[in-house]
Structure formats: structure tokens, C-alpha cells
Model the fold of this input.
Amino acid sequence: MKFLLTLRLLSLIVFGFIGLSAIFAQSPSNSGTLNPSPAPEVQNLRPDALISVTEDKSTAELVEITMVDANFSKKVLEQIVRNFGTLTGIEPRGVMIYSNNLSEGQAFLKAKFGINGLVEPAMGEIRLEQIAKAFVGLQDNKNQINNLQITFPSMIPSPSIVQFHSNAFCDVQGHLEKSPPELSYLVRLRTQDPSKISIPAKFTPEKPVEKKNEQKSSNNRPLMYMFVALGALAAGIIAFLLFAKGVPRA
Done:
């Protein structure tokens, strides 16, 4: 009889640990989500337009646009410059549109102008969205632009700059040269509808309070599991005592 009682006690303990193992197996593991990087091919884009934005001492930005296609329409480039004014709410100043003849038979259409509102160093913002939107929704479909290279010469970026960004309508990949300092971006435009393009002006990290609460909840799990284990063991012992009490002695 003692052998049977011992065997039943061992069975209760074994089943208790099996249940406990199942609880641990269902518990979620600690994991973190990283911001997705754009598709790797973005780094190898062939830009349709080169844009240089240089901060001037007069707190304005000097913008220079170079169209890679030698046959790009001058009227369409004029429309792009006007788009900058519409998007920033500031009329471009000192606009010059001309062809730059690098060699015989090779010319690139360029535009130069001054404007405000593309870079806000005090706020740590770079308005990539306004720049990208200026090149989409053009009236001439033959001069559609899909890829941009945007450069900020001599810029020392703040920690809040956007390094990369990706969604269904555009991809953005940043690159930083330290010597001489230069910040540049490759932008792939997946739509020609400017209302769908959205690029944050700066990186906004998640609130640390939410992470602390999540960590606190995660740290409480082992304590909860311990109480469950003790409860299962106590239930087994109580069941054994009740069973043993009801068994007649030989």
C-alpha cells in the first residue's frame, strides 16, 4: 500500500511539472522591433535629378538642380521651381535656368534659386518631403522623375535627422560623409501623386516611459510563474493528503 501511495505522489508531482512546462512554453519571449530599412536596391539608384541645398549666411537656402536627362524640358523645370514656392509658401528668389555645357554635344539643364524653409537647424529638421513633392505631379508625362539625389554640402547633422524611411509611396536612404562633411539622400518615388508622399522632417524616438512599463511587466513574469508553480505543487500535496487519509490501513 505504501508503494502505491508513493507512486501516486510521484505521478502528481510529474503532472504538476508538465503543466508548469506548458505554461513556460506559451510565454512570449522578449523581442524588439527595429525600424525597417528601405529595399537594398535604393542604394544603387540612378538619379534622374541632382539637388544640392546649401545653407547661406542670410538664413536662406541656395538650391541647385541638375537634370540628368540632356533632353529634359525647360518648361517642366520651371514648373518644378514654382512647386518649391507653392510647397514652402515662399517665392523662389534669383531664379536662373540654363544649360551647362560640359563638353561638345553634352549639356545638362540646371536651375539655381534661393528659398527658405527647407532646412531648420534649430529644430533639427530637414524638409525632404517638400523637396520630393516638387518633382512629382508634373504636367508632362514624358519628363517623369522617379529617383532623386539630394545633397546638403557642409552640413553637420543633428542626432534627430532621418537616416532612412520607407513606405508604399517612397523610399529614402541617407548617407553621411565626415570629411568634408556632407549629408546626402537617395529618394525613390513610387507615386506621381504628391498628396501620397510623406517623409518625416526629423526622427522622433519612442517615449521611454512606454518601454519602462513594458520592461516592468516583463520582469514580473518570472514571479508570476513561481506562484503558479507553488500553487500547482501545493494542490498536488493537498490531493495526496486527502487521498492518503481516505485509504484504510492494512
